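Dear colleagues,

For the upcoming journal club I promised to circulate an example of a predicted protein-ligand complex. I picked one with nicotinamide-adenine-dinucleotide because it came up in last month's discussion. The inputs are reproduced below in full, followed by the predicted structure.
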Amino acid sequence: MLDVFNANYDRAAQYVNASPDLLDNIRTCHSMYFMQFPVRIRGEVRLFQAFRAEHSQHRQPTKGGLRFAPHVDLPEVATLAALMTLKCAIVNVPFGGAKGGIALAPRDYTEEELERITRRYTTELIRKNFIGPGVDVPAPDMGTSEREMAWIANTYNMLHPNGLDNLACVTGKPVPQGGIRGRREATGRGVLYALREFFLHQDLVKCTGLSGSMVDKRVVVQGLGNVGSHFARLAQDEDHAVIVGVGEADCTLHAPDGLDIHQVLAWKEKTGSIRDFPGATTLEEPRACLELACDILVPAAIENQITANNASRVRAPLVAEAANSPTTAEADAILRQRGTVIIPDIYANAGGVTVSYFEWVKNLSHMRFGRMAKRVGIQTQRRMITGIEALTGEVFPSALRDDMLHGIDELELVNSGLEETMIDAFQEIVSIMNREGTEDLRTAAFVCGLNKVVMAYEQLGIWP
Ligand code: NAD
């Protein structure tokens, strides 16, 4: 993963007006914590290896997900933390980048055991000042969810009695525990907003040979976890895209006429796998999904999936990287050479951290978004409707009236903020691509992030 990051970083650095030593400093991960702690599991003392990397403190707190995966190690979290620094800069979220992980396979442990491991990890982070509302704020990533974030918040809170801002020490919490509506699906929704915006840029769309919008586009999704399942559901329900294939760790499903993603998710929930879903062909090879005929391929599982071995067989003209680093550096070069357009991970999956930022702000303000303004908004709309009725002598259409009088709630505000962020960032990336003549969106996105981090370093200076 580090080689992919370095290749992309080096390509982008050519377009950035900064000295090589500053660029080297920005590339480097500044703080890394490798810990090994014991937890009693089924009567035996088991040692766990765990990590937290804080890439850059030019903005504080640092922010990034926590993954539970058997293969996770320090170079991986350090690289992902570097990606987070640039990602936050791209979407104008005022955080430095971080990432954490515990080397374990969640399915090997009971819920109670996972709780003990998560709480011990949190305690270790507290002991070394690697967590806190103004220090470093974890969030869900592969293998973790709201449940783990609630344990982290509770552990932090128990060890910081009377800390008014304690809830802001972690994001992605359940809504009743200080979470925010819309965070669960934010990364998948952000990918969809990125694609919607892509289809408004005719020059780019032309390169793919596609036209129109997301409607009726044939989409393949790899990985039906948090990111992939919400993306697929929203693409089908809100944009009428057709999901023609999905891939999971054990197999691929293919249905050229389309799958009902709700039924696939229910099947997965019931049987524990997508295998043998009725009405679709099950292909044994998990990575077969990457090679299916489709308009848009959305890798949303793990890293290094599109490689030098299979890149030439990717048939989608458009790839939206929902996962982090799903394309190796060699595969990226092959796809670029073949003219495949890639909406890069560093931008495409930034919806998660964007809404995490909203949650952090909500926790610090101690109030749900929209609470103060909702009634005022409804009353203003009501006065307007009454005025229009008085002036025209007509009764206002009832469906429109209901729509205008329901008021704006937290979820609508969150989605609106997310949409604005994704649109804004896409336009910034495209304008850099046009201005600098970068060969792809990925390089332009890196330049976009790097320019802002460089500016912060230059304005802040280096001290002590
Ligand atoms: P998750 O653990 O919820 O889901 C991952 C899914 O991928 C699971 O369904 C798993 O079975 C499947 N999978 C695992 N190995 C696979 C393989 N070899 N082939 C096909 N499928 C496989 O994780 P997630 O939170 O959805 O994260 C997915 C990706 O998105 C990761 O790269 C993560 O870093 C990135 N991401 C997540 C978020 C977030 O908010 N959760 C934000 C930004 C980026």
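Two points we might discuss: Residues 65, 140-143, 187, 222-228, 247-249, 286, 300-302, 322-324, 349, 352 surround nicotinamide-adenine-dinucleotide (CB under 6 Å). The longest strand covers residues 31-41.

See you all on Thursday,
B. R.
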